């Protein structure tokens, strides 16, 4: 036995991340609640640009994913990594840079998203300077983690650490690829990929953000904290290893299930479906492994709120990972996609799996690092029950809403007409469900407040152990009889892990994505599809700024019910060739409002003008927020030349030198739109300079390239 | 005959086949490696989170 070494664990960094997770959990959920209420009471949009639904929604998703769960991951990783490796974190300085850097990024997100600064890639909305900051902080985290692994006192890496390593690698790759963009200015960029390709990369990212940010790190936490809380080892360590390799390999392929029935080529859709269904196996293996860890301890589950939280978390993981593959089956996806079903599904994962596991860990961990007991077990039990009720009240009404929506969208009368031709009818129908969902969210949030109070009281009575003393033998020079070679091999084991998981996830990524990028046939060209005019481009960027894609899709799937409903000429679903100049793609993921891909020409300009000013004036009872500032504010077209040249660099065929006359063209077209508006009776000073003009130009352009005659070869 | 089979297989993208094959390789290798390990090693690994460590404060029984 080697000599015992004295050292200490850094609890201060754990406490910081724990507090940050709690604070941002509360804020993120509050913002979510506001967004939920806005769908019931549109007046809560407050007629302010910064607080409209389209801008608030990404704020909520980013806060929940990256601030609440993100800080939760780091809390758990910093606690468990040190103990599993019997070593203090590699560098206190790096720990703190990581912490403050991450919080600065969250702050930047909280400022830029309400300002409408967004790349429109869901869950990757932040603009390029912040993307770079994220990459830097992530690298700091990586160095700190691998540094700790290298100076460890325990030879072997417990499976939780494998999950942490895979998380780190994959998030790095995903983040880089999905944010390849060319800046136009400090706060605006265009993605390198366009249309279908952009969509594929985005949903490869989007899905794997769920996989490798919300799932794998939390599985690592489960494999550490569940045995800790239950005080017994994991049910089967062998199963956990198989769970690990199968999961990371399969997950990376599943992205295209977000794009079923879209213009994505069939082979990519099929890959997404097959791998999504295969995912059930490792996911359920992991869930059972977690639940069976409690075998023989179920009597304690009844009294211990921590175990209760963890049991429901793992069960929610199981439910979500069963539902996910089901939703990836094309015929089910035809019903579920674009509806609120997806939102319900996501929240089983986030509220149940991520939220409850985080709460369980917080209740377990904070008393320990404060050398005390939990203030009130009873209160924690109440939190558990109200939280569980909250999840049910959240998810069930949304499942219902999803079905209702979908059935109404697809319903035909015996004579072959849409039974509910007015989209709004299918929306107002949902308001009671939305109200119940908001109630569910409120219950859940009340539970969180109870936890905040409980933990506050706990912390007050405790004494914080910033540096927890520990001792362990130095890492043995590995068993001699295996020889030098083995020793070296093990030394390098973390690095091998890193390489192996990188290779695995790259296989999935590259095989799926590269053919899309390289093979031209995958996106059949359509002659009549032309680049946007400068004014339309400016309008499109307003559409992005306002987050219209939070409610509107631009992807008519090849169903009769959709073509009839969304194409005023009743002719054509969306074709991949129509999107080749779309940077970024704006297909959206949910239809709280109707699809807009063929809205061009459906209404006259003044309809849009009035509708944007006050949607209820044109569509009584509409939930859409009013956008009065689009009508009062002047369009800032100062970047238009730069935009044109950036887009040309990326491959949009604007003629050489066009940027010099782009502004002139923009003003010319604005005058035409404004004149039409005046002719239709709209009054207003300097109409042609207003933002609304650009937005109308864009809306009227949508889907008109291939009308009236659909192109051959489709 | 073979040509016919190959041609109809053309619909199943080579990528799908490649993906499935690599998956089964990964799966097989991880099964092989983990079941070759002896029980002592597995027990040691499974108990890693539990073998704590420093003077645990009275928090150990916090809520049990």
Polypeptide structure, described:
Chain A has helices at about 10-40, 55-85, 90-110, 130-150, 160-180, 195-230, 235-250, 265-280, 280-290, 300-305, 305-325, 330-335, 340-370, 375-410, 425-430, 430-460, 485-490, 495-520, 535-545, 560-565, 605-615, 615-620, 630, 640-650, 660-680, 690-700; strands at about 5-10, 180-185, 190, 465-475. With about 725 residues, chain A is mostly helical. In chain A, the strands form two sheets. A two-stranded antiparallel sheet of chain A has the order 1-4. Chain A has a two-stranded antiparallel ribbon with strand order 2-3. The longest helix of chain A has about 35 residues, at about 195-230. Chain A is globular, with a radius of gyration of 27 Å. Chain A starts with a strand and ends in a 13-residue tail after the last helix. With about 60 residues, chain B is an all-alpha fold. Chain B contains three helices and no strands. The interface between A and B is large, with 63 and 38 residues.
Question: What is this entry, summarized?
Answer:
By secondary structure, chain A is mostly helical. In chain A, about 65% of the residues lie in helices and about 5% in strands. In chain A, the strands form 2 sheets. In chain A, strands 1-4 form a two-stranded antiparallel ribbon.
Secondary-structure element order of chain A, N to C = EHHHHHEEHHHHHHHHHHHEHHHHHHHHHH
Anisotropy-based shape of chain B: elongated
Structural class by secondary-structure content of chain B: mainly alpha
Integer average pLDDT of chain A: 92
Task: Provide the structure class of chain A.
Answer: mainly alpha
